[in-house]
Prior knowledge:
This protein is α/β, with parallel strands linked by helices. The protein has helices spanning 7-39, 46-62, 92-99, 118-124, 135-150, 175-183, 195-198, 229-244, 247-263; strands at 66-70, 82-85, 105-109, 128-130, 155-157, 187-193, 210-215. The protein has a seven-stranded mixed beta sheet with strand order 1-7-6-2-5-3-4, with helices on both faces. The N and C termini lie close together (12 Å).
Amino acid sequence: MRRRPNPVSWFHRWRTNLIQTPVLTVVTAVYGSLALLVSLFDKSGRAQHRIAQAWARACVWIAGSHITVRGAENLRKHAVAVYAANHTSYMDTPVVFASLPFQFRILAKKELWPIAFIGWYLNRSGQIPIDTVNTHAARSSLSGGVKALRAGMPLFVFPEGGRTQTGELQPFLSGAAYLAIRAQVPLVPIALDGVYDLLPIHTHHFYPGELTLSVGEPIETRGMTVRQAEELTARLRAAIGEMLQPEAMHSAVTGREAALHADA
């Protein structure tokens, strides 16, 4: 028997298609063009980053959600660090840009670079593309991240390498730990909750709700060697998992329900 259409799901679907997606497209084009224009004069990247933060906050607002930051004091304990978070949704990046109060660079899949406006911003603002398929190319990309850290620029990484299919934590790649150890800077765990529910991987429609970005205690790497990257990666994943409990289970369940209703 075919499931009866869910009226709430239809409301979210039509609101996304008729209002939120068109508005987000225009906002992205406007802010992207402004960032490209500013990049001709701003070599430090500060102005571009402020534009990216404004774009991110607009995206979260248009999506109908609000962000609560927990453990914000851990964001200011070190001038330079590698920040790493679970990857749950396309909206993770706006949530991170809207929440972190300082300039940073991100390691992102190279597939994003050809995308209009987003890819142009990534390229002009000095973000670091990484090849998640070719191991040798990925290690070469990480060298650029180490250079940025040593120059005093914080980095942000999604160590899962891609969005989770279920809302639950996936295995972590060791890139974030490798970067932190090579540069001898702290590794800061960040847990994103509610973002999977907002835009589940199985649908293109927004299901607004409360979003939480939790920042854990920085993990010190001084004295560690790259041979300990896997050990550090395990500590990072455990720290993020601990911050997600019991919220992670709730996010996974409600996110899957939203996706199923959207397909009904």
